[in-house]
Amino acid sequence: MSASKPRVKLSAKRLGAIFAVPAIAFAVSLAGLIAALLVEGRADLFFAIASGFGLIIAAAVIFRK
Amino acid sequence: MGKQTIKAWSWVHKWTSLLCTLFLLMLCLTGLPLIFHDEIDGALNPDSWTPANPAAEHLTLDEILDTALESRPGEVPIFMSFDIERPVVNVTSGPSADAPGSAMHFASFDLTSGNLVPPADNGESVMEFILQLHTDMFLGLPGMLFLGFMGILFALSVVSGVVLYAPFMRKLEFGTVRRQQSKRLKWLDYHNLLGITAVAWLLVVGLTGVINTLEEPIIETWKSQELADLVASNEGVAASASRASLDAAVSAAIEEAPDMELQFVAFPGSGFSTKAHYAVFLHGRTPVSEHVIAPVLIHAGTGEVAGLREMPWYAKALSLSRPLHFGDYGGLLLKLVWAVLDLLTIFLLVTGVYLWLARGNRRMRVERQLDNGEVLEA
């Protein structure tokens, strides 16, 4: 019997599609968390929103459906 | 991704999550009020105090120190800190400079008169209890290190969750929540969706929490390595009977780093200094450097400046990890984001346990699917 192991084949394209939104959420949130530490003033508001970008995406998805 | 690989990551995700769940739940619940500690303190202690002589010239730090020690006979000074918005100096004293926190006495003094400033400590005991529970569970260093280990497990569970997200979502669109099928599937989908969108925050708060648990070893390493020469040259030196002027020491420290501001003074023998030096801690003026402190060491007997010792990278990492962990650096909106993400983490922990408890016969089904190469088709 051949030794072929069962595998879940995920093409690079499919992987990209799976992680596209999470990767954007990760990058924007991380940038917001760090930028809020580096910059003070009114920009804090903007960076706080960026920090919670993942929450905004999740809320948009949940309430859209 | 092979069947065995997925099984291995599933094992990592399951056990790292389960082992740390209870402690993470405690950390999330105690962390929630700590995010708003400034607001809670402010609400419980409305600031009605005013300086006795607002127009008067400020007393010197030496005068304040003498006043503080007169009211605490037999005690020695440990720390002196400064209010930012009020002309108030805080003096911490104790039976010895290395006294434990429980033996320390904290008092605030009006810089314009030397009068005692009434303590704003309504609710302080509750907040201190919560902070202590959050920091070390009242177990000291072993408790801190244990919670640090829990933090590492938590970070591993987040990473393994990200790895497993791909096979779980193989045939699903982003954000799919299968509400019409089983209850377990619905909560699995919510768990995956909310978990993957909060990865950045979960990792930042988890890893900075781990760094914070290493506070004591980090400070000890800094003292034993970076300050080793100063400590060695003063080994066996008895505390000097004559004390050099504290005001002169602070002025000399600021001259060493004119672009920095005074933060606090650690007295000889305290946890943040050597046996023979005042350590005058300064911090930067920019948003980044204000979290990074540097001590100027000044011989407490002679007033001689030993020099500014920049903190090493690991101590700077500790300084930066504190605000990044508590989320108190970017205004109220950031705190609210922190609070919502804290609640989201509680949701992830609870749904994680639910998914594990409700696995039942599904495990056999998944194994069958694994055998068929249909991995994790829920």
TrEMBL record, chain A:
Recorded superkingdom: Bacteria
Keyword vocabulary terms for this entry: Membrane, Transmembrane, Transmembrane helix
Keyword Membrane applies: yes
Transmembrane spans: 15-39, 45-63
Protein name: Uncharacterized protein
From TrEMBL, chain B:
Protein name, per record: PepSY domain-containing protein
Keyword Zinc: no
Membrane spanning residue stretches: 12-36, 144-169, 190-211, 336-358
InterPro entries referenced in this protein's UniProt entry, alphabetically: PepSY-ass_TM
This protein's record includes keyword Transmembrane helix: yes
Keyword annotations: Membrane, Transmembrane, Transmembrane helix
Naturally occurring in which organism (per UniProt): Henriciella algicola
